[in-house]
Amino acid sequence: MESRMQQEPANKASLVRERLRLEILHGRLLPGQKLNISELCGRLEVTLPAVREALSALQGEGLVELKAKKGFEVSQFSSQDFAELTQARIEIETICLRLSIASGDGAWEGRVEEALRQLLATQRYTDELPPQMNESWSDLHARLHEELASGMENRWLADTRRALFRQSERFRRLSVPMERSTRNVDEEHRSIVAAALARDTDHAVELLRQHLQATYRIVAG
Question: Does 159 share its domain with 67?
């Protein structure tokens, strides 16, 4: 009974953490915005300990900051931050891809192929004016990059890659209105996957590097 009672607050904190993470990454909570714990408790219908635990966890992810005498607020993000983030992401993503190609088995290949198939079958933008990023496409895009790295077994690299991806998505959403461009992202993904599954490691890594650099140039302007 005691074990079950201990698990329930932890589960609540995890749910709050995920909810707030999504609100930050999707720009519903903006950089510098103060996070009032009492207000969050009321809005999310959870206890104060659950919110505090969630905010502390998000602080560890770099999404939230604890300011002296001010409390928690959403972390700020500069152009220099994005340049450094992209550099780090390229290094980590390419290491992960190399390791995945080296050790990925048939099941890994199947997951990557299925992730690509679903991504290519999904419309990237909504039909709104101006066009907005389709959230389903964004989720599937994250899944493809996740699966490309899933052939390796290094959880430290995997967690680091995931954190860098989330931060990159946050900056992209905050910085650039979604506009259609001549960039063929579908073809970029096809080429990366084809090279990875052919075990052409150097080519796959170079294509991934170019893919991430292209995103940086568009977002950074």
Answer: no
CA dihedral (66, 41, 14, 20) positive or negative: negative
The number of C-alpha atoms within 13 Å of 45 and in the hemisphere containing its C-beta is 0
Cross-strand pairs, 133: 125
Q: Is the pLDDT of residue 176 over 60?
A: no
- The secondary structure element, H or E, covering residue 135 is helix 135-149
Q: What is the pLDDT of residue 143?
A: 97
120 and 44 share a domain?
no
Q: Which residue range(s) make up the domain with 31?
A: 2-74
Is 201:102 a contact under the CB 8 Å cutoff?
yes
Tens digit of each residue's pLDDT (9 = 90 or more) over 82-138: 999 999 999 999 999 999 999 999 999 999 999 999 999 999 888 876 667 788 998
Q: Which CATH number does the domain housing residue 102 bear?
A: 1.20.120.530
Q: Are 90 and 15 found together in one domain?
A: no
Q: Does one domain contain both 108 and 183? A: yes
Share of the chain above pLDDT 70, in %: 90
- For the whole model, what pTM was predicted? 0.77
